[in-house]
Each structure stands twice: as structure tokens, then as C-alpha cells.
């Protein structure tokens, strides 16, 4: 993962460097900002190669961005972009499909080699993620993929699936886990193509993308509801909007079953709690992680790690 921040440049040079080296040289866009506002400019981003795509998270104070025909000719990308708006909102314009605003937490998609203009809606500036996937890395090879001007996602049922995949992809990038990243990249790309009518939801690729995304969301729902000792497949299936049978089918191709995933997440959470608050009673830790009894917690913890919770806590404290 590559990270960069304008703090590395002298204040009077920050926007000029961002415009010429980062915006134009790295992202292939033209950046503009009134001269009197440039002294206060701030920008930072991270860039990760994930699977067969590139993931960027960008935060910057407000300025205007344009991807012009000249920019496209100088730096063609031939890729599909999936955008996730984080914080504030954004405006897109200058496209054949018309202007639109994208709210915090919303998603949009486009092909890289079509012109647009964009700017943040508020004074807070930009905060977004962009996943760029080469067209050659997605199937089918459909000419409509190169006709996708920027457009927000209209299907609200896709938003939680996209959010879960983006969150997992960010973790995979941090952990440098390329094997975990590839199916997430493909799922996000094909969900975008489902939204734009290029891939049918019932097709093999559409179903594969939905399975990957639903499994990602199911795991996050489990993590969110760990404290509930009665956490059961019916609860997660209802939250996911699928049948219990379908939920179990999602976990059939995963490393762990539903119940194994719940137990593993509870154990990992208990370890984090003991490391963060070593003075906390082990019984409180077990209860906070949804174990039905202290005896069950000791038995499961010892089976997983070959030691009692108290021994783990002592080791963690000694290592501080």
C-alpha cells in the first residue's frame, strides 16, 4: 500500500504539486482551485493493488476536478470505476447522462475514458474510495462497458452488498491478502455491471457476484451482532433478505460454516477485549462476546488456542 500526504510538500507548493504530480500524473485528471485558497489546501490518499484492480481512498479539501478529452488522450485507462462516497457529498456533471449528486454512503460507477467534471458539495471537501478494474479483467467483453458515463446506483438493495465488499477489500489491502481481494474486486465490478444492465443478475457471473457480496455482508452482520447469545442463522438470514437454506449455501464454499464463523469471531473479539482492557473480568468478556456460559467460553477458547483465557491475558500483558 502506498500512502501520500501534502504534509510532505512545502505549504506554498502543495496544490501545484497535487495538481501536476498527483491529479494529472497519477489519476489522469485536471485539478483547479482559486489561487487565494491554495495556501490552505490539504490532500492525502492511499493506493493499493488489490486482485486485478487498484483501490484508492482519497481525502482532500475542496477543489474542482475535470476528466477532459485531452486528459483521456494523455492517460487512457480503459477501466471500470466503482466509487463509494465517504463523508459529505459530491457533484458530477458534464456527461451525456446529465448531472447528479451522490450522497454520503452512496455509490456510482463509470468507465474511465468518458469525460466528466466533479466537485464536493460542501466545504468539507472530498472523501471517497475508488476501485478501478481494467475492462480486460472483467467478463463479458461487452462494448457497452466503454459507454458507461458516471451514474449513481439506483438499486437500494445493492448498497449494503457494495458497502460490505468495499470494507472487506480495504481490510484485504491492509493485510496484503491478494487471494481474498480478487473475488471481492470481481464481485464489485460485476455488481456495477448488473446495476448498469450489462450483466444479468441470474447469469453465472451475476450469481457469483451476488454470492460473494452476500457472504461478505453475512460475515459483517455476524460481527455486528456477536453479543447476542441467541444469534442464529434465522436472524442473519432475515437481515440479509435470504432463506436460511440460502445462507448455509453461502458458507458451503467458505473456509468455515456459519456456526464456526460465529465461534471464531467471538473468540477473536474476546482476545481483542482482553488485550485492550486486561483488568476486565473474564466472565464479562465472555458475556460481551455472546458466549452462553463461562464454562463454554473456557472450553472453546482452550480448544482453539491450547490455553485458558487467563493464560492468554497474562501473556498479552507481559508482552506490553
Automatic annotation (TrEMBL):
Name the InterPro entries on file.
AraC_XylS_family_regulators, Homeodomain-like_sf, HTH_AraC, HTH_AraC-typ_CS
Q: Where are the bilayer-spanning segments?
A: none
Q: Where is the HTH araC/xylS-type domain?
A: 216-315
Which keywords are on file for this protein?
DNA-binding, Transcription, Transcription regulation
Q: Does the keyword DNA-binding apply?
A: yes
Indicate whether Glycosyltransferase appears among the record's keywords.
Answer: no
Molecular function terms in GO for this entry?
DNA-binding transcription factor activity; sequence-specific DNA binding
Q: Which PANTHER family match?
A: ARAC SUBFAMILY (PTHR46796:SF6), HTH-TYPE TRANSCRIPTIONAL ACTIVATOR RHAS-RELATED (PTHR46796)
What is the name of the protein in this document? Answer: Helix-turn-helix transcriptional regulator
Q: Which organism is it from?
A: Bradyrhizobium commune
Amino acid at each position: 500500500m502506498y500512502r501520500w500526504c501534502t504534509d510532505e510538500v512545502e505549504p506554498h507548493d502543495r496544490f501545484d504539486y497535487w495538481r501536476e504530480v498527483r491529479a494529472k500524473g497519477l489519476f489522469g485528471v485536471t485539478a483547479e482551485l482559486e489561487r487565494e485558497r491554495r495556501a490552505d489546501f490539504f490532500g492525502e490518499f492511499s493506493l493499493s493493488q488489490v486482485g486485478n484492480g487498484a483501490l484508492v481512498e482519497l481525502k482532500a479539501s475542496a477543489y474542482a476536478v475535470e476528466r477532459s478529452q485531452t486528459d483521456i488522450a494523455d492517460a487512457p485507462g480503459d477501466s471500470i470505476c466503482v466509487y463509494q462516497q465517504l463523508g459529505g457529498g459530491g457533484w458530477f456533471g458534464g456527461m451525456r447522462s446529465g448531472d447528479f449528486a451522490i450522497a454520503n454512503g452512496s455509490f456510482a460507477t463509470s468507465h474511465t475514458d468518458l469525460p466528466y467534471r466533479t466537485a464536493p458539495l460542501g466545504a468539507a471537501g472530498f472523501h471517497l474510495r475508488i476501485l478501478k478494474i481494467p475492462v480486460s479483467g472483467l467478463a463479458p467483453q461487452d462494448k457497452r462497458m466503454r459507454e458507461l458515463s458516471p451514474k449513481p446506483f439506483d438499486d437500494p438493495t445493492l448498497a449494503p452488498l457494495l458497502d460490505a465488499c468495499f470494507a472487506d477489500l480495504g481490510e484485504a489491502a491492509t493485510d496484503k491478502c491478494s487471494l481474498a481481494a480478487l473475488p471481492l474486486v470481481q464481485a464489485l465490478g460485476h455488481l456495477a455491471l448488473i446495476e448498469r444492465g450489462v450483466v444479468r443478475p441470474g447469469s453465472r457471473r451475476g450469481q457469483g457476484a451476488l454470492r460473494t457480496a452476500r457472504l461478505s455482508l453475512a460475515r459483517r452482520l455476524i460481527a455486528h451482532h456477536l453479543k447476542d447469545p441467541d444469534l442464529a442463522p434465522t436472524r442473519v438470514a432475515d437481515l440479509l433478505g435470504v432463506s436460511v437454506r440460502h445462507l448455509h449455501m453461502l458458507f458451503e464454499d467458505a473456509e468455515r460454516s456459519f456456526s464456526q464463523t460465529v465461534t471464531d469471531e467471538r473468540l477473536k473479539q474476546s482476545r481483542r477485549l482482553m488485550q485492550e482492557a486486561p483488568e476486565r473480568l473474564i466472565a464479562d468478556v465472555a458475556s460481551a462476546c455472546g458466549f452462553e456460559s463461562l464454562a463454554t467460553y473456557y472450553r472453546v477458547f482452550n480448544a482453539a488456542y491450547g490455553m485458558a483465557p487467563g493464560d492468554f491475558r497474562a501473556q498479552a500483558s507481559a508482552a506490553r
